[in-house]
Amino acid sequence: MEFTVLTIFPEMFPPFWENGIIRRAIEQGIISASAINIRDFTTDRHRTTDDRPYGGGCGMVMKPEPLADAIRTARANAPSSKTVLMTPQGRPFNQRVAEELSLVEGLIFVCGRYEGVDERICRHFIDDEISIGDYVLTGGELASMIIMDAVTRLRPGALGGEESAARDSFSENVLEHAHYTRPRNFEGDEVPDVLLSGNHREIEKWRLETSLIRTFLKRPDLLRERPLSPHEINILKNWCSDIETIIQTRSLPDADPPSGGQ
Ligand code: 4GX
Fold this sequence. Notes:
Number of helices: 9
Bound molecules: ligand 4GX
């Protein structure tokens, strides 16, 4: 997949492309990435990319001509790409949109600065408008990086080895279970016994329980979008009855003793 970014700040991108999974994906040919400076498509002495808004008011608007020429150049280099404008008015970005975008051959990101881009660019040159959230950035550059990041890790081979994008938080509208690594006792806080039991059925059961319960507590909106299996409903019911026991006896019920293993 080919990423092309149109920006007046191309220097922001190499530091992002030169690290971690993104860097490895580029080295392996899973993605390629380049930035085009919109200023290179200006024709005036001052290389102007913005102008005052028709109708008056504060703030500046990105001029259409340099942007249009930058988009044409990007499309000539990557003809089957989709051109995406980063804007708070776009459709909200989430894992579903990331999965959808990960299927196209190329993405051209138009990163606006100032108050926005001339409406005729949106009308004639943009295939999709995406927002990364309901807050206002100073430009679309960071928003495009977030999309490149989330999309890259979905491309086959990008997460080497046993890592899998299929099992992440959100891919099934449920948050991930808690993770622990050594030491077993960290500043007095112990790793749950079940994880040291070696009983893989019990460990899977514990992980599903903690996933469901933390989704229920932290992000109930996600559970509403997800059908619960009878087994999962049972897990939540047992959790409710544990809480009732706590309320009635004013003490915690016994944890399941770890079976097998050490
Ligand atoms: N998710 N911004 C874009 C300038 C702008 C405004 C309108 C085109 C149309 C943002 C976001 C975001 C700030 C990037 C305004 N360009 N982008 N910029 N939230 O806040 O994506």
